[in-house]
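Lab notebook, bench 4. Still working through the backlog of constructs that have no structural model yet. Next entry is a single chain of 368 residues. Request: give me the structure tokens for it.
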Amino acid sequence: MFASGCTTDMKEIQTLNYATAIGVDYKDGKYYIYTQLVGLASVAKTEGQSAPPQTFVSRAEGKTFIDAFFEVYQTGQERFIWAHITSIVLSEAVLEQGIENVFDGLTRYYEFRLTPWVFATKEPLDEVLTTLGFFDQSALETLLHNPQRIHKQSSIIRPIRLHQLARELFEPAQTTYLPYISIMEDKWQKNQESEPKLALEGAFFIEANSYNGAYTLEQLKGLRWLTPETKRASVLVPNEEDADFLAVIDRFGADISMTEGDTPTFSVVFNTEGLVSNQLDGLDQLKQMEEETSKSIQKEIEELFQLSIETKTDFFNFQHLLYREHPHKWKQFTKNDLLQEGKLENVTVNVKLRHTGAFKNKMVQVED
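Model written out:
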């Protein structure tokens, strides 16, 4: 029997290093790369008892982003496969430095795909990459690798893939943002001992490759109503301190328009549907509930615009709207010109609550 001439190039899959996530930091003129490897035995679906989760994280440095990867190879023991990366985590220092070098490296090497989720953090990257899921699941079963699962249940900050980030990052006058993840030490316990878990903390904003700061979920409550990717969101009405009921919004339609004239002003119309998930006290008339829900959402949107004015961060992307609709006027107005009192001329919120609880199990329509 003759042996195939190409067998020497064949590798057993268990002998290869499958990178599943990378973290990127920048300090003192050097890039630091953190590479996450997850043990295949803890991921594979096999009969009998599965192996405990194993997560390896390497740390390497280099003068450029790609240069750091060549240091990873020195201790890799076996060939690295980069095509299975599903998450990229950037430090705040990388955002401050500018992510052009990182993006250039990711798109030049053929094994890197444009589909990984992209996050940013202020936490140590090695700790982020070694935080596990529940019930001895691997690090792949976390927010880092599957953010869309939680986003469908509670849409706070939309997840973003690398190709979407690239499109928004290089689009003129557009402000984009990355989900801000942190490590929560005190929310979960395992056998009465604290169990750290990844959590959404807020978002990091970028405009024209320039870092515009990080903001908390509390500051960004109004952003979810303007985001097309929002699937499901809750709001306490009339406010969190003195709530009468909880409204869950699951159908969205936001439109930001610009008025014609020498000086542009903007309006937001938000049409939505939802249901009353939890009635605490007070209101019991559906029409009044809809009105109060509209006021609560309108307040969150207006507060977000106030934050835009204070921080000069274009959360509403007014600049990009002006660029698309009136490019000849775009260069006449700076961001500061658009983020002023009175520029958000009108906010209209229309809410329809379909029913007031599952017990009735029927649709409730509001008469005109």
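Notes after review: The chain has a mean pLDDT of 85. The longest strand covers residues 266-279. Flag for follow-up if needed.
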